[in-house]
Design a protein that fits this description.
Elements (H helix, E strand, L loop, with lengths): L1 H13 L5 E5 L2 E5 L7 E7 L7 E6 L4 E2 L10 E12 L2 E3 L6 E6 L1
Antiparallel strand pairs: 1-2, 2-5, 3-4, 3-6, 6-7, 6-8
Length: about 100
């Protein structure tokens, strides 16, 4: 049993989500692979001076960020990062930061 728990802990340590972003109707859609985990905890930095803030816990890959887009003619750089969740706890490593430009 201890050996099995050790393998599971090692698996969690090496897990690192990969985020990819496409835009649909101007809104970022974040794709990621589940890799057997329950969900992905997502954080966003909208370049508003607040830094990274909690965005969502996504259980189905393909999260659409429905936040209001910048004013018409304006643009902004939005950054995202995520970490896997299993049994309501963060596991593994944070993803690399994924960045996209959104426009109004």
């Amino acid at each position: 049993m201890a050996h099995q728990l050790g393998r599971q802990a090692a698996r969690y340590t090496s897990l690192k989500p990969v985020l990819q972003i496409i835009l649909q109707a101007g809104h970022p859609v974040l794709s990621w692979r589940k890799q057997g985990m329950d969900s992905l905890e997502l954080w966003v930095d909208r370049g508003d001076g607040k830094g990274f803030v909690f965005l969502a816990i996504d259980t189905v890959p393909g999260y659409t960020d429905t936040a209001a887009l910048p004013a018409p003619g304006a643009g902004a750089v939005w950054k995202y990062k995520g970490i896997y969740r299993e049994s309501d706890a963060q596991v593994g490593q944070w993803s690399d930061v994924a960045t996209t430009t959104v426009a109004g």
